[in-house]
Structure formats: C-alpha cells, structure tokens
UniProtKB/TrEMBL annotation:
<dbReference type="InterPro" id="IPR036388">
    <property type="entry name" value="WH-like_DNA-bd_sf"/>
</dbReference>
<dbReference type="InterPro" id="IPR000524">
    <property type="entry name" value="Tscrpt_reg_HTH_GntR"/>
</dbReference>
<dbReference type="Pfam" id="PF07729">
    <property type="entry name" value="FCD"/>
</dbReference>
<feature type="domain" description="HTH gntR-type">
    <location>
        <begin position="8"/>
        <end position="75"/>
    </location>
</feature>
<protein>
    <submittedName>
        <fullName>GntR family transcriptional regulator</fullName>
    </submittedName>
</protein>
<dbReference type="GO" id="GO:0003677">
    <property type="term" value="F:DNA binding"/>
</dbReference>
<dbReference type="InterPro" id="IPR008920">
    <property type="entry name" value="TF_FadR/GntR_C"/>
</dbReference>
<keyword id="KW-0804">Transcription</keyword>
<dbReference type="InterPro" id="IPR011711">
    <property type="entry name" value="GntR_C"/>
</dbReference>
<keyword id="KW-0238">DNA-binding</keyword>
<dbReference type="GO" id="GO:0003700">
    <property type="term" value="F:DNA-binding transcription factor activity"/>
</dbReference>
<dbReference type="InterPro" id="IPR036390">
    <property type="entry name" value="WH_DNA-bd_sf"/>
</dbReference>
<dbReference type="Pfam" id="PF00392">
    <property type="entry name" value="GntR"/>
</dbReference>
<keyword id="KW-0805">Transcription regulation</keyword>
Length: 227
C-alpha cells in the first residue's frame, strides 16, 4: 500500500497524486472514483481526500454527482474547443512578457533540447526525447510570464489539455513530430527576442495542434460508468 506522508498540505498531495493518475489514464473518462478506496490505498482520513476531489472538480477533471458518486469528467467537442480557445488566448498573452524575461541560458538550453530530440528522431527514429521534451517551451512561457494568477490558470488549463488530448495523441504519435518544427520556429523568435514573431508563431502552433486533434476526434471517450 502506498502511503501519503504529510510534508506540506495533505489534501494538495492527494490532489496531485489523483490528478497524475487521471492524466496518465489510470482512470478513464466517465469512470467512477471511490473516495473510500483512495483513503484506504493512501492511508489517510477521508477529509483530505474529499478536499482534493473538490479541487479537481473546480478545475474540471472530476464530476461529483449528489447521491451518485465521483466520476472522472467526460469531454465533448465543444468543451475541447473551449479549452483550446482559452489556452491560445492566455498563452499568447503570456509569451508577450515571457519573450523578454526568459534568461538567455534557458532559451539556449531549451533550443538545444529540441535540436537533440530532432537529431535522435532523424538518426534512429526514436521519439523518446521528443516526447519527454515536448512541453519544454510551454513550461518556460508559463514560468516567465511574470503573472502568478495567469500562471495558476494556465497550469490548470495545461492539465485539462493534457487529459483531453491523451487518447488522441496515443493514437497519433506523429503529432509530436509535426509539432517539432513549430517549436523550433518559436524558439528562433525567442532567441532573437522578437516578441511579435514569437506570439504569431505560438498562435499558429497552437491552432495547428487544435486542428490536428480536432480532425481526428471520434466523438467518444471510451466506455463510461457515469450515468
């Protein structure tokens, strides 16, 4: 049995652990989650489990139905589009500041990460580095946007975006390859401290990412336990 050890907030630790399991696909959309099972598995009381579930409900990852139980949220085409619309608007806003604040060494490090992933893919066909480093650029934008509230909102949106795209990306792993040249173009603009080019290229990249996922949408999320 895995035990949650209190070092900061117990409910925050449970929230992070449950969120990670949802994002990793341990719980599929529409599947019921048992708070009692989580309590027993992690060796905690029911109160921090309920607090964690309330937080995940507030960001849209779970749904609590009175007298019915807790379920992983499901997503439809409209909700998926809404998530991406918000992400495009907010991340393009964030990069306007981040493009001037990201340290040179961080930009160069990220740029070489992508180049190394590109080389590995070209020489061996291995996508491992590409997948591991796919979100490096986006993490930098969030970290250096100099707006704590925007960072909080964008991190929640990122979690929703990862969750929403997970099954689509799993079916279409070449989406990482399609994103790579777009990431490199954005990195080139950041290296030049060209804010407008960085913003425009980021918007194009995010719109392309949405289009690739949306075109492959099959309208379903697998079997559901949710009523």
């Amino acid at each position: 049995m895995t035990t949650i050890v209190e070092t900061t907030s117990l409910s925050e630790q449970i929230e992070d652990a449950l969120k990670a399991e949802i994002l990793a696909g341990r719980y599929r959309p529409g599947q019921r989650i048992s708070p009692d099972e989580l309590r027993d598995r992690w060796g905690v009381s029911i109160t921090p489990v309920r607090d964690a579930i309330r937080r995940l409900e507030s960001i849209g990852l779970v749904k609590v139905l009175p007298r019915r139980g807790v379920y992983v949220a499901t997503i439809d085409k409209k909700s998926f589009k809404n998530i991406f619309d918000l992400r495009i608007a907010l991340e393009c806003l964030a990069i306007e500041t981040a493009a001037l604040l990201i340290p040179d060494e961080k930009i160069e490090e990220a740029y070489h990460y992508y180049r190394e992933a590109e080389r590995q893919l070209r020489e061996t066909g291995d996508r491992t580095l590409l997948i591991e480093r796919d979100h490096t650029l986006h993490d930098l934008i969030i970290e250096y946007c100099d707006n704590p509230k925007l960072q909080e909102i964008m991190r929640d949106l990122h979690d929703l975006n990862v969750w929403a795209r997970a099954t689509l990306v799993a079916r279409h792993p070449d989406s990482y390859e399609q994103a790579l040249p777009e990431h490199l173009e954005i990195m080139e603009a950041l290296r030049a401290r060209d804010v407008e080019a960085a913003r425009q290229r980021l918007r194009t990249h995010l719109e392309n990412a949405f289009r690739r996922a949306y075109e492959d949408w099959n309208g379903g999320n697998g079997e559901s336990d949710s009523p």
